[in-house]
Amino acid sequence: MTPDELTQRLRQAMPSGLRAVVLYGSAAAGDHLPGKSDYNVLVVADRLGPAELTALAAPSRAWAKAGYRPPLLFTPGELAGSADSFPIELMDIKQSHRILFGEDPLAGVAVSLDCLRVALERELKAKLLLVREQFLLTGGKPRQVVDVMTASLSGLLVLFRAVLRLYQDDVPVQKVEALRALAGRMGFDPQVFLTVQALKEGRTRPREVAADALFATYLKTVEDIVAAVDRYLHRPS
Fold first, then answer.
1. Phi and psi of 85, rounded to 5°?
2. What is the tens place of the pLDDT at every residue in 32-72?
3. Are the C-beta atoms of 75 and 46 separated by less than 8 Å?
4. Is residue 209 helix, strand or coil?
5. Which of 67, 85, 156, 232 falls 20 to 30 Å from 186 in CA-CA distance?
6. 102 DSSP β-pair partners
């Protein structure tokens, strides 16, 4: 099922009250990996009570059965009031999205850098803790160690792009290009992330890398970035 097919089913399921269907994420940013990247869809409707959720359930189940996350569901008021709760996500969606149906629901949504700073501090540290936690479950097996890195990479790159927004207004849409720009700003070597990206895309095979050494560099670089952002956020004004 394609995003356009999902949109058609959503419109049929909710012939009135559906405000917008929006594609966002890698598919809108231009770095979508077929068979590896998700399709991310935002749905805005006037009401989202039991009747509306029941109407949207069948197309959403079909979408999930095709291997994708169910759509994000907002009313217009909820979306407008979520800029302080989801600043990282909404900044990315505002920058890269494609309207599949309706009018642009992001046009009037403004996100403050103060909200972004608070979210970044929390999310970066949470990602670091998760990488450590997942490594504990690998037993040191090389393939599983590689899986920890490839599974965590996309989320980290999203956060690194958000960090770059603290330094400059013009932020590359594609995550890898934002990574390179951030490396230039912060002075770290992005190669470890590029190597993991190659593993994720299948351009490099797990047996072609020393998983333990790669993970050590990966973890240390993430730790250094988290520490640098922490210093930046708490620097004297």
1. -90, -35
2. 566 556 788 999 999 999 999 999 999 999 999 998 999 99
3. yes
4. coil
5. 85
6. 20
